[in-house]
Design goal:
5-stranded mixed beta sheet, 138 residues, alpha/beta, two-stranded parallel ribbon
Length: 138
């Protein structure tokens, strides 16, 4: 189960994510089903209307794992952009990636791990966001 934060997405990412969660490869995954539910209720905006403090696709985010009290930095990517050796990327189809999507700086995000344990993070900073950088139609 992923966080129940209200989701605001740019129209391009919304369309891409809908195709992704409906694909045969992912549609049966619990994370895809939870993300699909969030997409159904999401607000959709033009890319230039996305606030700079919101985690969008391809954002580079610094966040704190609240339980472990560790600071992490990751780029939120689509699974097909995930590089095998990269340790600084996070797929939106991973429970943590899906939970981060749409979070804002200062927000805490809570979700359940596949093991059933609860996890929590706090978004500390957005180091890069495509929309804020003017990359509106990537």
């Amino acid at each position: 189960m992923i966080a129940k934060l209200h989701l605001l997405l740019n129209e391009l990412d919304h369309a891409r994510l809908e195709r992704l969660v409906d694909s045969a490869e992912y549609s049966k995954m619990p994370v895809a089903q939870a993300l699909a539910e969030r997409l159904d209720n999401a607000d959709i905006a033009a890319p230039d209307e996305i606030p700079a403090d919101l985690v969008s696709m391809h954002s580079r985010v610094r966040f704190r794992d609240i339980k472990a009290d560790t600071l992490l930095e990751k780029e939120l990517v689509y699974p097909h952009n995930l590089q095998k050796e990269a340790t600084d990327q996070l797929s939106v189809m991973a429970p943590l990636g899906a939970a981060l999507l749409g979070a804002r700086v200062g927000e805490e995000v809570h979700w359940q791990l596949p093991s059933g344990k609860d996890a929590a993070l706090k978004v500390e900073e957005i180091l890069y966001q495509p929309e804020a950088a003017g990359e509106l139609y990537r």
